[in-house]
């Protein structure tokens, strides 16, 4: 088989571990917010690789950064450091509360590092009894055994034997439940500042502020998982900046590399000191190629006009979804912030989110779901108005087909 030969979906079943069930279409190229499959059919991309492709497909600044770095240096290991990693770390610390950065390759790895740091800090400062990690039902923090256990969805963590211990889950946005369960044994609270996989659930201001206050009261660390919300996705560079609450540890990935795998854990100098030499590591973390691309991405995304543009695009999406719903009333609520949006389904349409996704694909629109009852949109942060309008037209046709078949 040559690289010029097109492959079909059945090859997946032949050669791939079946933990995914991808759709029949196989995208082979992309530009901006458009993608073409192996049969040269065009799609509007409202999915963005699950909130990853923040500048769309093959943005020139990413392509140029990768090509330039590819001629210089690919890999060293962390026996040595490299210039792209240092430049990127410096810029990330200038964009948020953090002083120090640990680079990884994914959101799960970044969250694993955050959880290990929280436990190590608690052991060093208070002793082994301070080990409780509190997280929230319907949260999602990755697929390693530690992170999937902390994520509050048993469907992802059950069936693998004994789980990591001292992990407690409570309802999101329920401050009284948190107050009741926190104690001097609590070492950290881990939360998404806007639940993504759990259905695009925003926190109340009172809840977020209350979590911070309870963490301070019990000398527990507050970890914000900004893997999906970070790097401009909500209209602030990090979502915490729009909530008026600062975490102790923050994780980021997904859109950090615009499609090139990279993750990072950010924290303060005081906390970082507890991950001494040898306590944690990553072979590829801080890879020069990934860091060079990520540096180009955040240089672009952090521009005030880009962040302002995210908020403008949110309004275009909300207007488009509202107009569709006026004709075909299947949405109960438009949730989320910035370009991390979800349309929850009415009682009559419960469980039909995937039906909408599949029908949208037939109309040439790529989108997502968040559970069975929420349709999710995480497009490029710089998607053009014309692409939004065309995508909404295709979504309307898909919904009309399903609605009229009832």
From TrEMBL:
One of its GO terms (biological process) is L-arginine biosynthetic process. The modification N6-(pyridoxal phosphate)lysine is found at residue 254. It catalyses: N(2)-acetyl-L-ornithine + 2-oxoglutarate = N-acetyl-L-glutamate 5-semialdehyde + L-glutamate. It is found in: Cytoplasm. InterPro entries: Ac/SucOrn_transaminase_bac, AcOrn/SuccOrn_fam, Aminotrans_3, Aminotrans_3_PPA_site, Class-III_PLP-dep_AT, PyrdxlP-dep_Trfase, PyrdxlP-dep_Trfase_major, PyrdxlP-dep_Trfase_small. N(2)-acetyl-L-ornithine binds at residues 143, 282. Its EC number is 2.6.1.11. Pyridoxal 5'-phosphate binds at residues 107-108, 140, 225-228, 283. Its main location: cytoplasm. May also have succinyldiaminopimelate aminotransferase activity, thus carrying out the corresponding step in lysine biosynthesis. This is Acetylornithine aminotransferase. It comes from Photobacterium leiognathi.
């Amino acid at each position: 088989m040559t690289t010029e030969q097109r492959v079909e979906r059945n090859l997946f079943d032949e050669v791939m571990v079946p933990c995914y069930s991808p759709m029949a279409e196989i995208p082979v190229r992309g530009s901006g917010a458009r993608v073409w499959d192996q049969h040269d059919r065009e799609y509007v991309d409202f999915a963005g690789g699950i909130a990853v492709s923040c500048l769309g497909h093959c943005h020139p600044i990413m392509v140029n950064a990768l090509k330039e770095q590819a001629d210089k240096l690919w890999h060293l290991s962390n026996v040595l450091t490299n210039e792209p990693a240092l430049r990127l770390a410096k810029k990330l610390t200038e964009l948020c509360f953090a002083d120090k950065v640990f680079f990884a390759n994914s959101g799960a790895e970044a969250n694993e590092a955050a959880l290990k740091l929280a436990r190590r800090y608690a052991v060093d400062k208070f002793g082994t009894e301070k080990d409780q990690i509190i997280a929230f039902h319907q949260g999602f923090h990755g697929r390693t055994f530690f992170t999937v256990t902390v994520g509050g969805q048993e469907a992802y963590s059950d069936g693998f034997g004994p789980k990591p211990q001292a992990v407690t889950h409570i309802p999101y946005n329920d401050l009284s439940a948190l107050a009741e369960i926190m104690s001097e044994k609590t070492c950290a609270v881990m939360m998404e500042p806007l639940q993504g996989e759990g259905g695009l659930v925003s926190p109340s201001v009172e809840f977020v502020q209350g979590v911070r206050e309870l963490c301070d009261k019990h000398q527990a660390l507050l970890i914000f998982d900004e893997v999906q919300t970070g790097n401009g996705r909500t209209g602030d560079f990090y979502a915490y900046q729009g909530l008026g609450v600062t975490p102790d540890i923050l994780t980021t990935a997904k859109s950090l590399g615009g499609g090139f795998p990279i993750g990072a854990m950010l924290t303060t100098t005081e906390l970082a000191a507890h991950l001494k030499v040898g306590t944690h590591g990553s072979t590829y973390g801080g890879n020069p190629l990934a860091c060079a691309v990520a540096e180009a991405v955040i240089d672009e995304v952090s521009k005030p006009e880009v962040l302002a543009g995210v908020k403008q695009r949110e309004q275009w999406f909300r207007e488009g979804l509202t107009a569709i719903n006026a004709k075909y009333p299947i949405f109960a609520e438009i949730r989320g912030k910035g370009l991390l949006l979800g349309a929850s389904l009415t009682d009559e349409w419960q469980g039909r989110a995937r039906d909408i996704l599949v029908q949208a694909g037939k109309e040439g629109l790529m989108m997502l779901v968040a559970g069975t009852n929420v349709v999710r949109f995480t497009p490029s942060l710089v998607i053009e108005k014309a692409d939004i309008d065309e995508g909404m037209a295709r979504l309307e046709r898909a919904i009309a087909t399903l609605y009229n078949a009832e």
